[in-house]
Design brief:
alpha+beta; YbaK protein; 10 strands; 32% strand
């Protein structure tokens, strides 16, 4: 299901914008003229063989050890591109939205991003971004919220 169809079905307000292709969350933030604090960087991890979507602000780095501890996993690694394309068949690799629930994945949101008034994320393509208020995002995704980022 396309992310906009999901958002429409959930009856939440959002704004879709297009920009030049950008391949990192920080590049998207620059193209969209938003702070990296509001831009979601989505990372697919395999924790003891179980896929999970973690979401951090673009301006931060993911603390793998913190995520491992939060999940109680003995092993954690980034999913490879082949696995990501299997999990997110309607998205370009690296442009996954922060809605793991749409793809059968648990979503963990870093508390730094969760404190912001709004969230911006890639809408499945490298030339499209979606902005919505954080309250709506939290309501429809219900992610686990924890602290697992470090300032870059």
């Amino acid at each position: 299901m396309a992310i906009t169809e999901f958002l429409d079905r959930e009856a939440v307000g959002y704004e879709v914008t297009t920009h030049r292709p950008a391949y990192t969350a920080q590049e998207v933030a620059q193209e969209e003229h938003v702070s990296g604090r509001n831009m979601a960087k989505c990372v697919v991890l395999a924790a003891d063989g179980q896929d999970v979507l973690v979401v951090v602000p673009a301006c931060c780095m993911l603390d793998f050890e913190a995520v491992r501890g939060i999940l109680g996993a003995s092993e954690i690694r980034m999913a490879d591109e082949e696995r990501i394309s299997e999990l997110f068949p309607d998205c370009q690799i690296g442009a996954e939205p922060p809605f793991g629930s749409l793809y059968g994945l648990a979503t963990i949101l870093d508390e730094r991003l969760g404190r912001e008034a709004y969230i911006v994320f890639q809408g499945g393509r490298h030339d499209r971004a979606i902005r919505m208020d954080m309250e709506s995002y939290l309501r429809i995704e219900s992610p686990m919220i924890a602290s697992f980022s470090q300032s870059a």
